[in-house]
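INFO batch 0412 | record 1 of 1 | parsing
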Amino acid sequence: MRNGPFRTGISGLERVHFRLYITIFLMPVFYPCHAPGLTMSFQVPS
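INFO prediction complete | emitting tokens
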């Protein structure tokens, strides 16, 4: 089975998801007032 393009597509998708996860995880840390929903969902102790 030749899964070259499939693997490159998955790696690109994982790269996008990695950046998305970092943005979501760091948003309540850097912008607690701008993201009340995220801080409440993560329940970050202030």
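INFO post-check: The two ends are 52 Å apart (CA to CA).
INFO record closed
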